[in-house]
C-alpha cells in the first residue's frame, strides 16, 4: 500500500468519532485503493457470531448476511480458516452454491475475502466485491496490504471501544452500589435494624418479586425522595 493510503487511514483514526465511522472510512478507502473493487465489507466473529461491522457505499444489502445464515461463503471461510478465498467468476463457482446464486442476483461477479488478524477476536476478514469477472485479479496484492493495515486500525478502534465499555460498566456498578447503599440506609432508619439485616430483607424481596436488587432499591429511593413523600405514612 502506498504511503498516501497509510496516511489516509491514520487520519481516519484521528478524525473518527467512533468505531462505526472509522470502519466505514476503511471500507470506502478500500474500494478506492484496491483495483477492481466495487464494494467492501468487514466481517468479525464476536461472541461466537459472525457480524458485518461496516460496509462501503454501494454495498449490496444482505450480501454478507446470506453467508452467515448459510454458514458458508468466502468471508465465512476466510474468517474461520484464516485462509484467503478468491472467486474470479461466481458464474463458474461451485464451492458455495446457495450464496453464489444470491450474489449473482445482486450483480456481484467476483469476490475476494482476505483474513485479518484482530486482537481478542476469533476471526475476521476484509471482503472485496467486483461486478466484472476477474476484476479483482490484479488487485489481490493491494487487498492483502490493505487488510494488514486495516487489521492494525481495527485493533486500535476495538481496544478503545472495549475501554469505553469497561468504563461504562464501572460507572453502572458504582451507581448500583450507591442506590443499594441508600436503600439500606432508609430501611435502617425506618426499621431500626443494622445494615446486614436491611440488605438481607432487600435481597429477599428482590427474589420474591423477581426483580433486580438494583431496581428494587431504586424504586424505594425514588419513593422516599419524591416531593410529597414527607406526607406519606
What's a concise summary of this model?
By secondary structure, the protein is an alpha+beta fold. Helices cover 57% and strands 13% of the residues. α2 packs antiparallel against α6, α3 (63-70) packs antiparallel against α5 (97-105) and α6 crosses α7.
The topology string of helices and strands comes to: HHEEHHEHEEHHH
- Please mark out the parts with pLDDT under 50 across 5 or more consecutive residues, or reply none: 1-17, 229-233
Shape: elongated
**Structural class, judged by helices and strands?**
alpha+beta
Strand content: 5-15%
Question: How would you characterize the overall build of this protein?
Answer:
By secondary structure, the chain is an alpha+beta fold. Helix content is 57%, strand content 13%. The chain contains eight helices and five strands, in the order H-H-E-E-H-H-E-H-E-E-H-H-H. The protein has helices at residues 3-15, 19-33, 63-70, 74-81, 97-105, 140-191, 195-209, 213-225, and strands spanning 39-46, 49-55, 85-87, 110-115, 124-130. Strands 2-1-5-4-3 form a five-stranded antiparallel beta sheet, sandwiched between helices. Helix 1 packs antiparallel against helix 2, helix 3 runs antiparallel to helix 5 and helix 6 (140-191) packs across helix 7 (195-209). The protein is elongated. Mean pLDDT is 81; it is low at 1-17 and 229-233.
Amino acid at each position: 500500500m502506498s504511503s498516501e493510503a497509510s496516511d489516509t487511514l491514520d487520519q481516519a483514526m484521528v478524525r473518527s468519532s467512533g468505531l462505526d465511522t472509522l470502519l466505514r472510512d476503511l471500507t470506502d478507502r478500500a474500494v478506492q485503493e484496491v483495483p477492481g473493487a466495487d464494494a467492501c465489507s468487514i466481517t468479525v466473529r464476536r461472541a461466537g457470531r459472525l457480524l458485518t461491522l461496516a460496509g462501503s457505499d454501494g454495498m449490496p444489502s444482505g450480501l454478507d448476511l446470506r453467508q452467515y445464515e448459510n454458514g458458508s461463503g468466502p468471508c465465512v471461510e476466510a474468517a474461520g480458516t484464516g485462509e484467503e478465498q478468491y472467486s474470479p467468476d461466481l458464474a463458474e463457482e461451485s464451492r458455495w452454491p446457495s450464496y453464489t446464486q444470491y450474489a449473482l442476483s445482486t450483480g456481484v461477479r467476483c469476490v475476494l475475502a482476505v483474513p485479518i488478524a484482530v486482537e481478542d477476536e476469533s476471526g475476521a476478514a476484509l471482503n472485496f466485491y467486483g461486478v466484472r469477472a476477474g476484476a479483482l485479479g490484479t488487485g489481490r496484492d493491494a487487498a492483502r496490504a490493505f487488510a494488514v493495515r486495516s487489521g492494525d486500525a481495527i485493533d486500535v478502534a476495538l481496544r478503545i471501544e472495549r475501554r469505553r465499555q469497561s468504563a461504562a460498566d464501572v460507572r453502572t456498578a458504582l451507581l448500583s452500589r450507591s442506590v443499594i447503599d441508600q436503600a439500606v440506609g432508609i430501611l435502617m432508619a425506618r426499621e431500626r435494624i443494622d445494615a446486614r439485616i436491611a440488605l438481607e430483607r432487600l435481597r429477599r424481596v428482590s427474589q420474591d418479586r423477581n426483580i433486580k436488587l438494583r431496581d428494587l432499591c431504586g424504586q424505594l429511593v425514588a419513593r422516599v425522595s419524591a416531593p410529597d413523600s414527607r406526607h406519606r405514612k
